[in-house]
Amino acid sequence: MMKSGWKRILIFMLLLWQVLLLAGCDYYVNEQPAQQVPVPFYNRDSRGRADTIGKLGTHSISIPAGVIDGWARYVGDPGDFADPKIKAKYQRPPKTYDLPIESFGFQYRITDGDVYTSFRQTEEDYRRDNETLIPYGKPFPWASISVYGQYDAKAPLNFNAYVQEGFKISKEVTNIDYIQQPQPLYGLTVYKANNGIDPETGEPWKSDVNAKDILLKKDQAGNIKTYIDCQFTQHINFCSHMFYNDDWHIQVRMSYNRTYLSQWQEMEGRVIRILDSWRVTQEGKLLGKQIGKA
């Protein structure tokens, strides 16, 4: 009995020692300091608001606070209509100047190349133009801009397939055939729905959302780099304008009053100039004066 009792005590002591040893290991692991991610430097405006940072296409940028219409979406972020459970579990990587930006939007003033920024004079200008121009059918001098980083190295930076498929679907679904016009407009090749004639009336189109004018611009290699479609449906008279930029590796989409169509090339240049003003080094040092900074 004595030997049996000692055996039980020894076994108990051995087990207790193993438990304490394991607990000690866990304590050691848990006490190790977590790896710290360096906090990036943020450029700020006069109100102390931090810029939005990341990498757009091929360039690191610092977007002035108060400029973005909504918010910037980073690659990997759940969509607006994603399952709430997925959104709740998602953890975005720490923001750095290398974190790829998928898209963001802002407002740009066509007449002078300035940018809408909250708590800046342009906010008052934008509100005044909304109240005094739009209700009276006068041209609104602001363009809505959306910028999309292109990260698929295999995807071509042109609208060749997009245009070909669009013309095909238009013909098959709405029985509208797009005909190239003999004369370009503002340096753009023009295509008109059914040659500009409404087949039901035999007269020029007056109102049909499917009968937009389509205007294209190709580069020297024959690739379509600019795609514009303009509506003329009743009181709707605006253009949707898309273009690719090879240096930035981005697609830009603009929407504006058709009155400003003649300035399409200048608008493309000004949007890129705005983006260039937001470029920074990987450490966040600005490479120029930011357009739109409050």
Please give a structural write-up.
The protein is of the alpha+beta class and 294 residues long. It has a domain at 160-245. It is 26% helix and 24% strand. The chain contains 5 helices and 13 strands. The chain has helices at residues 2-30, 84-89, 121-132, 160-174, 264-277, and strands spanning 52-56, 59-63, 73-74, 101-109, 142-149, 178-180, 189-193, 197-198, 203-204, 213-218, 224-230, 238-245, 250-257. The strands form 3 sheets. Strands 3-4-5-13-12-11-10-7-6 form a 9-stranded antiparallel β-sheet, with helices on both faces. Residues 16-35 have low confidence and may be disordered.
Give start-end ranges of low-pLDDT stretches.
16-35
Give the DSSP E fraction (strand runs of 2 or more residues).
15-25%
Number of helices: 5
Q: Write down the overall geometry.
A: globular
Q: What structural class is derived from the secondary structure elements?
A: alpha+beta
User: What is the CA–CA distance across the termini?
Assistant: 88 Å
Mind telling me the C-alpha Rg?
29 Å
Q: Compute the number of strand runs.
A: 13
Biggest pleated sheet? 9 strands, antiparallel
* Nearest-integer average pLDDT: 88
Order of helices and strands: HEEEHEHEHEEEEEEEEH
Helix content: 25-40%
| Spatial sequence of strands, sheet with the most strands | 3-4-5-13-12-11-10-7-6
Q: Topology, pairings included?
A:
Layout: H1 2-30, E1 52-56, E2 59-63, E3 73-74, H2 84-89, E4 101-109, H3 121-132, E5 142-149, H4 160-174, E6 178-180, E7 189-193, E8 197-198, E9 203-204, E10 213-218, E11 224-230, E12 238-245, E13 250-257, H5 264-277
Antiparallel strand pairs: 1-2, 3-4, 4-5, 5-13, 6-7, 7-10, 8-9, 10-11, 11-12, 12-13
